[in-house]
Amino acid sequence: MGRTHLAFLVRDRSYFAIIKKEIHTLVLSAGFPARKVAEIDIIVSEILTNIVKHAGSGTLLLKITAHIDQQQELELIAFDKGPGMADVNRMMNDGVSTTNTLGGGLGALKRLSDDCQIYSQKNWGTIVLIRVLSKPNNSRAKSPKALVRSILVPKPGESQCGDGSYYTVNDQHLKLLLCDGLGHGPDAAKVAELAGQAFLDYPTEDPVDMIGHLNVALKRTRGAVATVAIFDLKKKIWSICGIGNIMTKILSREGHKNYMPYNGIVGLNVPRNLKTQQIMHDDTQQLVMCSDGIRSRWDMLKYHGITRYDPSVFCAALLNDYARNTDDIGILTCKINAAAYVRTGQGHP
Question: Is residue 334 assigned to a domain?
Answer without folding.
Answer: yes
